[in-house]
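Note to self: keep these together.
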Amino acid sequence: MPPAAARRHCGPDWVYWVPPRGPLSRAGRTLPQLFFTATTQTNLLICAELIREQGLGYAGRGVGWKRSTGRAKGELRGRTAEGSIARMILMSWNVNGLRAALNKGILAFVRKAAPDVLCLQEIRARPEQVQLELEGYHQYWNPAEKRGYAGTLTLSRSEPLAVTYGLGITLHDAEGRVITAEFPDCYLVNVYTPNAQRGLGRLAYRTGQWDVDFLAYVKELERTKPVIFCGDLNVAHKEIDLANPKGNVKNPGFTPEERERFDDIVAAGFIDTFREFTQDGGHYTWWSQMGRAREKNIGWRIDYFCISPALRPRLKESYIRPEVMGSDHCPIAMRLE
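Structure:
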């Protein structure tokens, strides 16, 4: 059945997405991205079966698509039964204590923003300590063994194929700093990099062991499929990434050693997505809670979305939400299509 016939059969109200890198047609040609519609969910399933039979692309039983709330009329997003995501909005946020952030009302913002995946760092809580009422999300917790310390949490509308915790290295994994979610087309790694601490007491561990092992970990994942990693990386890469670079050269987060480890990330091919769209300064994700630093915008950009080069064609936006309160960090977001 040619695409035009499929489109006529399916009708005007529902949508069916064929990924641009989908299967080959019977003629052996790679098809472009196509959008099919159906008047009802039942007709959508019939349409999906026809698409599968004709080798036109991914199709799945039980795939219900609906209009996304909070978007322009007719703008849709969803996934096939196999889990391929047509459009993905990801968000990352160091909440500086999840229980405190919940008390400050962050759920209202999350519900309105409605990201497909939300990666939280420094949750400092265990699931039994928190009543997290966020409908429509699968929750994946990796709390630190030490109570009230570090920890990560990934919330995803789509159930990943698999989820793993940590780097698989005992030295690193007691602090709950990594969650890896595998999706059909990529890995998503939620990471909270150790701080070098005042006096640089953990600098040698952070730059000589953690940074080296984390980069090796994501490069190994990349051998299988593209990687996204996001979170609080606890480093301002360039002078443009903090308000007072000269006064912070010997402080944690801006030492030459930490910045060199981020150079290694870039040299390994990963892309700092924010800098693909914004090249000027004054854009920060963390502010000290002293001296009205946030009000004066005396901050640091230490939270990142980094992606494999293979995902660059799908990258449409990467941005910071400095107006959103609830933590000493603000959320960052990225959109893939």
